[in-house]
Write a structure and sequence with these properties.
The protein has 306 residues and is of the alpha/beta class. It is built from eight helices and six strands. Its cofactor is Zn(2+).
Length: 306
């Protein structure tokens, strides 16, 4: 009798296992993606590359403007501070929903930092970050890429697996995860937002000291043409998407960008500014969903924005 009961238990377990779906394998960066990424790295002189590795992790990857993957001179000048989704509708995340997966290589503390960044954006905007279920065609894979290391992202939805790199802390410092700020910055790139100092009207608000910029990196301070300027918002010194005063600087006493407003500070990586918040909400139509949601997200921007 006991033998029969044991057999029945085995049969039931086997039947249950066959009826239950197999767990989805954890995603890894695809080889094709990594090969494409290498083409995003500018072929700087070896000495310049060595200096980059000692720089801010938003600068060290050696991509366009330091941390933007997949761009060239040609594609850059066809876009705006935020992608024109009426021209590039395929770059918008569908239904303002972003499936994501955080690499198992991160420590629990680093995972919490990344989750905080996603939660912050999700709270202040209508962007819905959902865990990758193994079936979504397009998803964000947050991974500590070793080469090129640093903090970097593509602009907007690229389709399929989309890598966003956040270098974890090491013996030299916190890198991209000393707080949620840099993770927010790179995620905004993935949503379609460019750097603030790329605006066509940049020179009205900050002074670019060209002589203080390491020469091979001067192109990273290019402005977009006036016809490509987007959004009905004032220039935002407080934007989390703004360069700091010493990005690509030739020395600690050589600022590359200086605000023209005396009390202004640039380069904060603490959180979304009020304008950052409005920008994302407008880009994804969050204000247009209903009067209630317009009031809700405007309130979050006004109260929580820096």
């Amino acid at each position: 009798m006991m033998h029969c009961s044991g057999l029945m238990l085995i049969v039931m377990l086997v039947a249950y296992s066959l009826a239950s779906p197999l767990p989805k394998p954890m995603p890894f960066p695809e080889i094709s993606s990594l090969s494409f990424l290498q083409k995003s790295v500018v072929d700087y002189d070896r000495n310049v590359q060595l200096n980059l590795k000692q720089a801010d992790p938003e600068v060290s990857p050696g991509m366009w403007e330091g941390d933007i993957a997949g761009l060239s001179f040609d594609t850059y000048y066809t876009w705006r501070l935020g992608l024109r989704f009426e021209v590039f509708p395929e770059r918008r995340w569908k239904n303002a929903t972003v499936p994501y997966h955080i690499s198992h290589k991160y420590s629990s503390i680093d995972r919490e930092t990344i989750q905080t960044a996603l939660y912050t954006i999700g709270l202040m905007t209508c962007i819905d970050f959902v865990p990758y279920d193994g079936d979504a065609e397009d998803y964000l894979l947050i991974w500590p890429v070793e080469e090129p290391a640093g903090c970097w992202s593509f602009i907007g939805r690229t389709g399929g697996q989309q890598v966003l790199s956040l270098q974890p802390p090491d013996s030299q410092g916190p890198k991209c995860l000393g707080g949620p700020g840099k993770a927010i910055h790179e995620t905004l790139h993935a949503l379609g937002i460019f750097h603030e100092q790329s605006r066509a009207d940049r020179d009205d608000y900050v002074t670019l000291n060209r002589e203080n910029v390491i020469k091979p990196f001067l192109h990273n301070f290019a402005k977009q043409s006036l016809v490509n300027t987007t959004y009905d918002f004032e220039y935002d010194y407080a934007s989390i998407m703004h360069y700091g005063t010493h990005f690509f600087s030739a020395g600690k006493d050589k600022p590359t960008l200086v605000p023209k407003r005396r009390d202004a500070r640039i380069g904060q990586r603490d959180g979304l500014s009020r304008t950052d918040c409005y920008k994302v909400n407008k880009l994804y139509g969050c204000f247009e969903r209903s009067p209630y949601e317009k009031l809700k997200y405007e309130s979050f921007c006004d109260i929580l924005g820096l």
